[in-house]
Amino acid sequence: MREDILQLLRTSDGALSIYNIQDQLHLKTVEEVRNLQNVLKKLEEEVLIYHSKKNKYMLLENSHLKKGVMRVNKKGFGFVEVAGLDDDIYISIDHMNGALHDDIVLVEVVSKMNLDRLEGRILKVIKRQVTRYIGEINFIKNKGIVSLDDPRVKMEIEVKPEDALNAVNGHKVVVEIVKKINHHKYRGKIVEIIGHKNDPGVDILSIIHKYNIGIDFSDDVKEEVSKIPMEVEEKDLEGRRDLREEEIFTIDGDDTKDIDDAISIKLLSNGHYRLGVHIADVSYYVKEGTALDNDAMERGTSVYLVDRVIPMLPHELSNGICSLNPNVDRLAISCIMEFDSNGKQIEYDIFPSIIRSRIQMTYKNVNRILENGETPDGYEEYVESLRKMEALANILRKMKEKRGYIDFLVDEAKILVDEDCVPTDIIKRDRGVGELLIEDFMIAANECVATHIYFMNLPFIYRIHEKPKEEKIRSYLSFIGTLGYQIPGDIKDFKPKAMQRLVQFLEDKKEFKILSSLLLRSMQKAIYKEENLGHYGLASQCYTHFTSPIRRYPDTTVHRLLRTYLFDKDLSQKTLRHWEEKLVYIAEHSSSKERSSIECEREVEDMKMAEYMESHIGEEFGGMISSVTNFGMFVELENLIEGLVPIRDMNDFFHYDEERMTLIGERSHMKYTIGDQVLVKVVRASKEEKIIDFEIVKKL
Q1: Looking at residue 549, what DSSP letter applies?
Q2: Phi, psi of 352 (to 5 degrees)
């Protein structure tokens, strides 16, 4: 009956009463009518149908209501993200109806605030997705009160002493909601004590727990790892090409311990380049369906924080037998590609191999060779190969740029900390010749592997980046037009080449750093998908992630598929059906875990930047206005620290011009807009609140 009801509502011209449904389904007996009532109630609870005040039923998708995920701002208002809806629905504080951050909610659209934003009200909390929260417990009159770390979650949680796990004042805890007391008050119980708030590292641990990122591995995983040999054995060589005599080496950061990729190069007699990209053969050790594999799939990715890495795989694998450490035998999957002098790929080969890296190079030392002409000790015999690699990388980059590859040139911050994880300095990450070289080679290998499987028409997982939505780009172009920058031409079919021209047009403008970041935010997010939709930012028709299986589960999956299809030649219908079904979940779950890890990393960075600025209150810094809102403006310093100049602290009444993203002083007529250079003073900084407040000293 359930499907019959849904099909009836799906094909109906309007809402139906229970009597209409009863008649059209030809239900006669009392038992049938009672069953109808029960099914309708169940469908209403599942929010698949809408029951109106006029006692009529319709599919939710055909109603004025939407189901989505609540995202709350720390100021109390929020936005509901609705699948398939381009824009989020704004919810004012008065219309939250008790909804909390991350709740699945039913929302009614009540008006359109302006051309870009819908406004709604929450009718019902369908599901509370989060039941555990992180906070600090303090006891008042023998009752524990947990102050939550997340300012977006507006609730007070009381804990009885017997439910507090012997926590004391100042402990950071994981608290589970037991029951609701009233609108904003809940009863909870402590399920884990993270540590005291003043203990080194507890601040970061609290954020890790907030994002439910697993730190420890289960006993089952540990047992499986204990049975994996930590050296390559003779039986592992079967079916592998032996490349141990080849000149192969790795290039990574100074402190990298999980080494996924190694490279090799030869200049052929015909002037072509033979590039080898050799990737750790993780799937050989991590078998599908094992506890180790299930745990890696659940984690989805390694998480890189300022003072630690939370690995996707146990250290025995990530830093040991899977890591392409120097002077030891390691199993790999190699992608050997031949390119002509114009960067065109002539031929390629993908196969299982055994390699022995000659040296673990660092970006810093490689850049000394390629940028400064210096040769560090131990690198002497590899200088010629590095020069060849540089030449090929330049060719490959020109080829990518020719097809429309977009480099937004956005800087990243690197936070330096001491042994107690206290920030000592914040600098820009280097992006030298060595970093670009590896990036170019990995992109080439990823494209090669993706294209090969795509033309075999087999189930696969792709890294996709869809083209930006036209309205987002038009809005961006309209804004930069208010700055006096007019881009000629139409954007109806905004291909990568056009976006590339836009970035190049802006590159010499004084606000480029900010405008580039804003343009990047106008793009869609890159995700994993079982369907090949191309990669817009790379101007690539076919792309995947093959090169980092130690730290990304989709890459491990790609390796597993290569082994299944190419090496074991298993193309049975049973196997193909299995992967067709499984890849949908892996792609969606991996994309979700990637988003969580990025949010965790950003929150840790925000906290450490605020902590760093706590010791610089009263000092003045030059910066650029990076964003303007109706409550103030954000200023980004040279070291990429960003702080807010609250409008309430500005010595005038300022009007907000949303179209031009400008604040205009009523008395002074002073204008502040994106890209303006200003001198600011640090007036507030809070590690706990993760905020930095500036005041304007003067406009530069």
Answers
A1: T
A2: -75, 145
Token pair listed for 103 = 């709740």
The answer to whether 590 and 554 have CB atoms below 8 angstroms apart is yes
598's tokens: 């990025």
| Residue at token pair 């990122």 | 213
SS3 per-residue string spanning 163-195: HCCCCCCCEEEEEEEEEECCCCEEEEEEEEEEE
80: nearest Cα among 71, 129, 63: 71
Task: Say how far apart CA 406 and CA 502 lie, in whole Å.
Answer: 10
pLDDT tens-digit profile of 152-181?
888 889 999 999 999 999 999 999 999 888
How do residues 513-533 score in pLDDT, each as one tens digit? 999 999 998 899 999 999 999
In the structure, how many helices (H) and strands (E) does the chain have?
16, 34
Predicted model pTM: 0.88
Cβ 604 vs Cβ 207: under 8 Å: yes
- Could you tell me the strand order of the sheet in which 49-51 lies? 16-17, 56-59, 49-51
- Residue keyed to tokens 């996707």: 312
Distance CA 262, CA 437 (A): 12
Query: How far does CA 161 lie from the centroid of its chain?
Result: 39
CB 635 within 8 A of CB 643: yes
C-alpha separations of 653 from 34, 631, 640, 666, 668 in Å: 64, 11, 29, 5, 9
> What kind and span of H or E run contains 143?
strand 143-148
Contact 647, 663 (CB under 8 A): yes
C-alpha 359/C-alpha 350 separation (Å) is 23
Q: Give the type of residue at 101.
A: H
Q: How open is the CA angle 618-620-624, to the nearest 5 degrees?
A: 135
Strand partners, 632: 629, 646
- Going along 181-328, which residue ranges are E strands? 185-196, 241-242, 250-252, 261-267, 273-280, 303-304, 309-310
% of the chain at pLDDT higher than 90: 70
How many of the other CB atoms lie within 10 Å of CB of 510?
A: 11
DSSP annotation of 509 reads S
